[in-house]
Amino acid sequence: MEIKDRVSKLRVLMERNGIDVYMIPTADFHNSEYVGEHFKARAFMSGFTGSAGTLIVTKDFAGLWTDGRYFLQGEKQLEGTGIELQKMGEPGVPTIAEFVVENTPENGILGFDGRVVTFGEGKDLATKLKRKNATIKYDVDLVDEIWENRPALSEEPAFYMSLERAGESVASKLERVRKEMHEVGANIHVITTLDDIGWLLNIRGMDVDYVPVLLSYAVVYEDSVDLYVDERKLSDEIKKHLADHNVHIKPYNDIYEEVKQFSGNDVVLVDPECLNYAVFNNIPKEITLVERRNPTILMKAIKNEVELQHTIKAHVKDGIAHTKFIYWLKQLVKQGTSEQEDELSASAKLVEFRKEQGGFICPSFSPICGHGENGAIVHYSSSKETSIPLRTGTFFLTDTGAHFEEGSTDITRTTAMGEVSDKLKYDYTRVLQCHLRLSRLKFMEGVSGANVDLFARAPLWHDYENFNHGTGHGVGYLGNIHEGPHGIHWGIYRAAEPFKYGMVVTNEPGLYISGSHGIRLENELIVRKTVKNEYGQFMEFEVMTFVPWDLEAINLDMLTIEDKYELNKYHAKVFEVLAPHFEGDELEWLKQATREV
After folding, report:
1. Does residue 443 sit in helix, strand or coil?
2. In whole angstroms, what is the distance from residue 596 CA to residue 589 CA?
3. How many Cα atoms within 13 Å fall on the side-chain side of residue 522?
4. How far is it, in rounded angstroms, from Cα 566 to Cα 569?
5. Helices (DSSP H) in 481-560: which residue ranges?
6. 3-state SS assignment for residue 519
7. How many Cα neighbours within 13 Å face the side chain of 82?
8. DSSP assignment, residue 114?
């Protein structure tokens, strides 16, 4: 069935249900960034496979809203579908809410599956639609009526994070959460985000693409927890672990009925950006809601030393794998056989190198492996239709990551496939300068990613150039690879969260020249404390990614003394960490790849 036919069927169902506008976001019931196959409704209905986007259909219009990471990909994948790309943030493009309100008629109905829309977004739309006396129908999953042979929910088994791996007991975490509940006067806290539940109860699963989490809901009471989950996924060990902390196991979907049983004296803490609209609407209206960010979000973002040390071990593994991969690419060029490989086969080779390190669980996000002009598509996803051979004379960009048993990684390298032009070297060097200047920064406690982003972009801004994505994001510990609440971006409110000791954040500036090449250079950083004096507490970044930069892509004459110092210091550390794992020709190459300049 073609995309046009699916949209036509949707319009028939909309009319049957009296719906004027229907919205299909990119989400599961837990507002996850990546979702399992069962939840890929937006991709099924539109053909657009990016990780972020919302499809909106009216009687005579269909549009796909997505952000700057996916403009080029969206244009390609939506071609011929009849669905118009709506470039979020661009002049003249309405927001989703603006479009919905404008296109819902007086006394009309907006429809969506309330399980895949957040309480905050649904409440905002409901408020704005009141002026047109329009309402929301949130109990209809129309896509399910179109999608034949829809994949079933995952039945993968869960696994337990021991204290030696988690670094903090469930009892301690629950005590901290309940303390925050009491501070805001709540006796119940409803948690629906999977990484928060996994962190709180020290359990993980394999239910979501690229994220080791377990499909579940949790309701935290003052002396117990109700965990809504498919019990078949839980081993006897996990059940005992949960029972020891007074966690009661209940069927996955029962939460929708059980929240109706909250009594009038209850005060319930909910996060509007996380809780889904259907759960919210099932909570009795007389219940007092405290709308605050989940306490677990900041707690899990501040890693304990056990989590950090395990993550560093994961980065050593990933550093070995990715460095061997770059050596393999360079050998292809040297042997004149690079065009025998393409983006997909090279991506598979990188996974092979990771698996060789042991303890590999899965990729931590959809791999971005773009060669030449495909590298200019910011969040490009290669396919059989788009994959191109690895020709020489240009760049190969690989933004990939892994979940190992020790922790999670996210790393980007841009590799020169043989000799590249002066223009490409100029661009690579500018991006490297952006990276180095952020990496070496010292800053005061209380500073946020919105503040420091200016340092990362300055070398590109000097040339009136920019990149249309964040410079950095928080990273989860066997959870979401893109984790809040902190980040690095001058123009996004989430990046206003101050850095705190123990947070992990990426440093990934880039430059993308449409039709030619893309460059992104990414390491992960730990926020550490450094000097404390009469001026206050100073902070710095500790780099925990160990892979060489490509000296063949750098114009060394452009580097300042400080740039060269940082480059040499980093390469010395990379060689120290990786050399014991290399031998023979690979070791000789590593010496050259990390030589002092």
Report:
1. strand
2. 14
3. 27
4. 5
5. none
6. strand
7. 14
8. G
Tally the C-alpha atoms within 13 A of residue 309's C-alpha that lie toward its C-beta.
7
What pLDDT sits at residue 254?
A: 97
Does residue 494 register a pLDDT over 70? Answer: no
Burial class (CB in 10 A: 0-12, 13-18, 19+), 238: buried
71 pLDDT above the threshold of 90: no
Tokens linked to 54:
């919302």
> DSSP assignment of 126-161, as one string?
HHHHGGGT-EEE-B--HHHHH-TTPPPPP-PPPEE-
What CA dihedral angle connects 544, 546, 547 and 550, to 10 degrees? 70
Query: CA 578 to CA 575: how far, in whole Å?
Result: 5
Confidence of residue 375 (pLDDT cuts 50, 70, 90): very high
Q: Which amino acid is at 323?
A: T
Token pair of 316, please? 């050593």
Whole-structure pTM value: 0.92
46, 81 contact by CB (below 8 A): yes
Q: Which two tokens stand for residue 22?
A: 């229907």
Measure Cα distances from 525 to 309, 436, 440, 520, 546 in Å. Answer: 13, 12, 11, 16, 11
**Which residues are CB-contacts of 202 (< 8 A; sequence separation ≥ 6)?**
160, 161, 162, 163, 166, 169, 170, 173, 241
Residue 393 neighbours by CB distance under 10 Å: 13
Please tell me whether residue 83 adopts helix, strand or coil conformation: coil
Per-residue model confidence as pLDDT tens digits over 125-161 = 999 999 999 999 999 999 999 999 999 999 999 999 9
What's the token pair of residue 124?
């905002």
Cα dihedral 181, 184, 186, 187, rounded to 10, equals 50
The answer to whether residue 29 scores a pLDDT higher than 70 is yes
Single-letter code of the amino acid located at 324: K
- Model confidence at 1, pLDDT cuts 50, 70, 90, reads confident
Report the C-alpha gap between 126 and 120 in whole angstroms. 10
Strands 368-371 and 395-404: antiparallel
Assigned token pair, 113: 């599956």
State the pLDDT confidence band at 512, using cuts at 50, 70 and 90.
very high
- Cα angle value 363/367/373 (rounded, 5°): 170
> Using an 8 Å Cβ cutoff, are 379 and 365 in contact?
no
Long-range contacts of 150-154 (CB under 8 A, 24+ apart): 150/38, 151/36, 151/37, 151/38, 152/38, 153/36, 153/38, 153/207, 153/215, 153/230, 154/36, 154/38, 154/205, 154/206, 154/207, 154/208, 154/215
Residues 43-64: tens digit of each pLDDT: 999 999 888 899 999 999 999 9
Burial of 242 (0-12, 13-18, 19+ CB in 10 A): buried
Report in angstroms the alpha-carbon separations of 253 from 193, 214, 230, 337: 15, 14, 9, 54
Strand partners, 398: 369, 413
Amino acid of residue 327: Y
In whole angstroms, what is the distance from residue 475 CA to residue 365 CA? 12
